[in-house]
Amino acid sequence: MPLGDGRIRLAADIGGTFTDIVLEAGDRLITTKVLTTQGAPEDGVITGLADILARSEIDVGDVALFIHGTTLATNAIIERKGAPTALITTEGFRDVLEIGYESRYDQYDLMIEKPEPLVPRTRRLTVTERVDVHGQTLTPLDEAGVHALVPVLRELGVESVAVGFLHSYANPKHEQRVRDILASECPALSITLSSEVCPEVREYERFTTTTVNAYILPFMEGYLGRLQQRLAAAGLVCPALLMTSAGGLTTFETAMRFPIRLVESGPAGGAIMACRIAAELALDKVISFDMGGTTAKVCMIEDQTPQTAREFEVDRAARFTKGSGLPLRLPVIEMLEIGAGGGSIARIDAMGKICVGPDSAGAEPGPAAYARGGNQPTVTDADIVLGRIDPARFAGGQVPLEPARADSAIASDIGGPLGLDTGLAAYSICEMIDETMANAARVHAVERGKVVSDHTLIAFGGAAPLHVCRLAEKLGIARVVVPNNAGVGSAVGFLCAPVAYEVVRSRNLRLGNFDAALANALLADMRTEARAVVEAAAPEAEFEERRGAYMRYFGQGHEVYVTLPARLLADEDGVAFRAAYDDVYQALFGRVIADAEVEVLTWVLTLTAAVEPPVAVPEPLPQPAPEATSHRQILDPDSGQPINVPVFVRSELAPGATFAGPGLIVEDQTSTFVPGSFTARTCGAGHIVVETKREARI
Question: Which residues neighbour 642 within 8 Å (Cβ) at sequence distance 6 or greater?
Answer without folding.
Answer: 387, 423, 633, 634, 635, 636
